[in-house]
Amino acid sequence: MTATTGDTPPPEPGLRKRRGVELSLLVCAVLISVFGYVSVGLGKYGALPPGAVRYGVGLGVLALLAHIAVRLRAPYADPLLLPIAVLLNGLGLALIHRLDLETPNGIAAPTQLVWSTFGVALFIAVVAFLRDHRALQRYAYLSVATALVLLIVPIFYPAVNGAKIWIRFGGLSFQPGEFAKILLAVYFAAYLAANHHVLAYTGRRIRKLHLPTGRVLGPIVAIWLISVMVLVLERDLGTSLLFFGLFVIMLYVATGRTGWIAVGLLLAGVGAFAVGSLEPHVHSRVEDWLHPFASIEEGRGPGQLAQSLFAFAAGGLFGTGLGQGQSILIGFAAKSDFILATAGEELGFVGLAAIFMLYALLVARGYRTGLVLIDPFGRLLATGLASILALQVFVIAGGVMGLIPLTGMAMPFLAQGGSSVVTNWVIVALLIRLSDSARSPRPGTGTGPGSESQSQSQSRSRSRSGSRSGSEPQFQSQSKPQSPSQSEETGVVAPAILDPGGRPLIREDDQ
Question: pTM score, two decimals?
Answer without folding.
Answer: 0.81
